[in-house]
C-alpha cells in the first residue's frame, strides 16, 4: 500500500524560515534575516549580559541561552562589535515592534521640506523682480525654502556676473524672512542660490505686573496746639 504523506500543518512562505528559539539550532545554510543576531545565531563563545532581568556580567554563550530559555525570552545581540559582544534578554518581537513604532513617530514629527523655485533672466526688469520677490516672501513665511536661479540662454552666459549680482540683491531683500544656505553657484546654464526660512522663536508672554498694593492713607500730622499767653 502506498503511504500517504502526513499533513504537517500549513506551510510557511518560501524563504521565511522559523525564528530560532533558545536551544533550537538553525538549519544548515540558513541565514539570519533579522537585523540583530538572536539566540542560536549568536556565534560568540561568551557574551556580556546587560538589562534589568539578569545579573549583569560575562557569561558563556550556552549559559546565556539557557537563562533566556528559562525566562521564555530571546537572547539578542545588541552590540556585536564589543569585546565580548553585548546581549540583552528580551522579547524580540516586542522589541522590533517598539522600534518600528518609534521610527514611525520620528517620521511623523519630521517636517517635510518644501522647495519653491523662482527663475530669473540675467536682465530681469524691476517690475518682474518685485513680483517674484513678493512671491518669495510668501513662500518663506509659509516655511518653504526658496531656490532662486538665473537661467543663461545662449550667449547670455557672458552676463554671469550680472546674474550673481541679481541673486545677491534678491537674498539681501529677503534677509528679514530667510537666510542664505548656499551662495550663488553656477551649475551648467543656471546660477543658483538657496534661501531657507528664518525660524521664528515662540513669543514669550509678558510677565504679569503685580497689582500695586493699596497705599495707606497718610494721616495729616497733628498741628501743635497754640501756646497760651503768659
Globular, elongated, flat, extended or rod-shaped: what is the shape? Answer: elongated
| Main beta-sheet annotation | 4 strands, mixed
Unreliable runs: 7-18
For the record, give the distance between the C-alpha atoms at the N and C termini, rounded to a whole number.
156 Å
Number of strands: 8
What is the H-and-E element order? EEHEEHEHEHEE
The helix/strand class is: alpha/beta
Rg value:
37 Å
CATH superfamily of the domain at 115-197, please?
Translation initiation factor 3 (IF-3), C-terminal domain
Approximately how much helix is present in the residues? 25-40%
Number of helices: 4
CATH architecture of the domain at 115-197: 2-Layer Sandwich
The strands making up the biggest β-sheet line up spatially as 2-1-4-3
Q: What is CATH's topology name of the domain at 115-197?
A: Translation Initiation Factor IF3
CATH class wording of the domain at 115-197: Alpha Beta
User: What is the mean predicted local confidence, pLDDT?
Assistant: 78
Estimated share of beta-strand residues: 15-25%
Amino acid at each position: 500500500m502506498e503511504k500517504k504523506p502526513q499533513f504537517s500543518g500549513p506551510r510557511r512562505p518560501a524563504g521565511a524560515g522559523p525564528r530560532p528559539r533558545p536551544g533550537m539550532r538553525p538549519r544548515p545554510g540558513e541565514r539570519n534575516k533579522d537585523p540583530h543576531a538572536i539566540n542560536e545565531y549568536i556565534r560568540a563563545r561568551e557574551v556580556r549580559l546587560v538589562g534589568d532581568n539578569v545579573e549583569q556580567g560575562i557569561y558563556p554563550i550556552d549559559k546565556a541561552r539557557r537563562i533566556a530559555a528559562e525566562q521564555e525570552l530571546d537572547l539578542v545581540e545588541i552590540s556585536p562589535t564589543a569585546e565580548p559582544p553585548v546581549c540583552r534578554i528580551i522579547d524580540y518581537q516586542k522589541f522590533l515592534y517598539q522600534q518600528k513604532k518609534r521610527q514611525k513617530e520620528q517620521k511623523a514629527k519630521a517636517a517635510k521640506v518644501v522647495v519653491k523655485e523662482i527663475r530669473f533672466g540675467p536682465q530681469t526688469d524691476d517690475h518682474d523682480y518685485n513680483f517674484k520677490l513678493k512671491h518669495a516672501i510668501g513662500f518663506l513665511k509659509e516655511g518653504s525654502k526658496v531656490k532662486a536661479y538665473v537661467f543663461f540662454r545662449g550667449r547670455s552666459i557672458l552676463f554671469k556676473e550680472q546674474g550673481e549680482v541679481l541673486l545677491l540683491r534678491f537674498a539681501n531683500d529677503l534677509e528679514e524672512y530667510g537666510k542664505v544656505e548656499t551662495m550663488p553657484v553656477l551649475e551648467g546654464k543656471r546660477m543658483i542660490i538657496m534661501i531657507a526660512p528664518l525660524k521664528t522663536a515662540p513669543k514669550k508672554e509678558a510677565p504679569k505686573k503685580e497689582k500695586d498694593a493699596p497705599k495707606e492713607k497718610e494721616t495729616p500730622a497733628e498741628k501743635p496746639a497754640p501756646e497760651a499767653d503768659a
